[in-house]
Write a structure and sequence with these properties.
The chain is α/β, with parallel strands linked by helices. The chain contains six helices and six strands. It comes from Trichonephila clavata.
Length: 193
């Protein structure tokens, strides 16, 4: 999988294809530096105080509220008016606050702002990977997988075991369908990158 991605990205870069990078991050309201430059000419806290300097970092207590940020940009910079920034409501992992519906709504608003026929690079976080329709998983009964494949007119052999049947699956992601409407393509990072 990683080799396939590396081959694709190398070819796209050699072709000078317009690549846009999409990702999410967060920052706490109380985020501050833990180390700073020090003036070594000041020898005491009295000297610092009399020179209107501080003797250490003053950081707010606690982390405070969390801003969650989603944005997209290219080597030319961020896309204007494309940032999605909101205040988080829970204290856990920030990805828990994002879901497929929220992401798709934002994604639909930025697509018209992008140059035509670009490549959008994104990771495989679950809300980027909502399927257009529900497809079988390994928890399904073998007969249900066979029935689903038959309904979709996907050829399969009666001798196949369940894991082999699952390899016949296909399914498109909602965001890929949205991007396709604007002539864009999505390239996904390999898992865990």
């Amino acid at each position: 999988m990683a080799q396939n991605y590396l081959r694709k990205i190398r070819n796209l870069r050699q072709e000078n294809a317009p690549i846009y990078y999409l990702d999410e991050t967060w920052v706490n309201e109380g985020h501050s530096e833990t180390r700073v430059w020090q003036d070594t000419s000041i020898k005491s806290s009295y000297e610092a105080s009399s020179s209107n300097l501080t003797v250490g970092l003053t950081a707010p207590k606690g982390k405070g509220r969390r801003l969650i940020i989603t944005h997209i940009g290219s080597k030319e910079g961020f896309v204007p008016d494309a940032a999605d920034i909101f205040i988080g409501k829970i204290s856990g992992y920030y990805h828990e606050e994002l879901d497929g519906k929220h992401f798709e709504t934002w994604f639909e608003t930025i697509l018209p702002k992008l140059k035509p026929q670009i490549i959008i690079l994104m990771d495989n976080i679950p809300y980027h990977s909502v399927k257009k329709e529900k497809i079988p998983t390994s928890s399904w009964e073998k007969s249900a997988i066979q029935e689903w494949l038959s309904q979709k007119k996907v050829a399969w052999n009666q001798d196949l075991i369940k894991i082999e049947l699952l390899q016949h699956l296909y399914g498109s992601y909602k965001v890929e369908e949205l991007a396709k409407k604007f002539g864009h393509k999505i390239l996904r990072l390999p898992p865990y990158h």
